[in-house]
């Protein structure tokens, strides 16, 4: 088994080495060919520059002879013309080689323009010779000016510049091609290196996997058992933490009303004679605290049942709009006492299969919270709408708002925000109960708020529990 894997690994490695060698040979050959073409292009540039320099010296010598009456050295003229002819011959030969190597696309017009350049040089020399032979003073200056300006400064210079520019373009194209080849070689080398690394790692991994399979299996079993024990320990720690926090919170919440009840009873019994109104006041205080205790116990029992998934809901088809209006009526006395107006705005008429009493309890909690943390002469809007998948009920107020750092914690049990100390004291269970009701219905309760502008509580119930009414 190991021999077969080693043999396969060796064969693949050998193929990679062979492929790398082929790439090196190919890149070397292509690079040498491109370097040769670069040398040809540079040689053509040099020959064109040599041709330009020699031609200008010849033209100057012929011009001096005409303008200053200095007889040209015919031997020097013949020498320059021979050099020009030699340069043109070299240029033709190099251009033919270049065209055969690069094709007409790269060398279009080169050979043809060289023929035209030779004809231009010959015609300029012939014009000088004609002026020398026929020195008619009538148009003597115009003819010289025409040769110097039109034939040499414009025609000859443009022809030389065009040839030089064409060869420069060839050089640029060759440089671009070489750069492209270098990029191909670079990425090919990188790819081969990556492939070699991957194959090496895969081969080593394959060889080691067979050896370590048993150890990995044992480690997996140990890790699985450790994870189970860790999870169980975490669950126990969390349960213990929840228990301790619950006992601390409930002890705190129970102590105050019990202390008040005990205090009122002790005061009522301590004095032998008290009038009827004093007893009524004491009993009224005891009743209020007993009601608060009863509500606290009910909320705790509800949350406990929700945590244990033993909460039972009496789901029935309910007219949502009618339910919203009844909630508004239930909270009207409290809202009028605080001089706050509640408006019910339904975007659509719908029924929902829900526990009406529990949803009523949820909405009353949200509205009472909104009243508690809103200034007088403001408004609370209660509205319901149907989306594609959900029934959405929104309670929006324009009160003091909730700080951004408090929003993540407002649904936790016994949590009281910074505004609590400024307004009516709550037990910190209302929003926890409201969220538990929404969760029990398979929905969710979320909050968004801007300090100084108000708060929006959104109840979302799954669409499959609702159906639209006609």
TrEMBL record:
UniProt-listed Pfam families: HATPase_c, HisKA
Residue spans crossing the bilayer: 7-26, 184-208
GO molecular function, one term: phosphorelay sensor kinase activity
Source domain of life: Bacteria
PROSITE patterns documented for this protein: HIS_KIN
Any one GO cellular component localisation term in the record: plasma membrane
Matches recorded under SUPFAM superfamilies: ATPase domain of HSP90 chaperone/DNA topoisomerase II/histidine kinase (SSF55874), Homodimeric domain of signal transducing histidine kinase (SSF47384)
InterPro entries per record: HATPase_C_sf, HATPase_dom, His_kinase_dom, HisK_dim/P_dom, HisK_dim/P_sf, Sig_transdc_His_kin-like_C
Keyword S-adenosyl-L-methionine attached: no
Domain Histidine kinase intervals: 249-465
EC number, as in UniProt: 2.7.13.3
CDD domains per UniProt: HATPase, HisKA
The keyword Transferase is assigned to this record: yes
Catalytic activity, as annotated: ATP + protein L-histidine = ADP + protein N-phospho-L-histidine
Keywords in alphabetical order: Kinase, Membrane, Phosphoprotein, Transferase, Transmembrane, Transmembrane helix, Two-component regulatory system
Gene3D superfamilies: 1.10.287.130, Histidine kinase-like ATPase, C-terminal domain
Protein's name in the database: histidine kinase
Originating species: Pseudidiomarina aestuarii
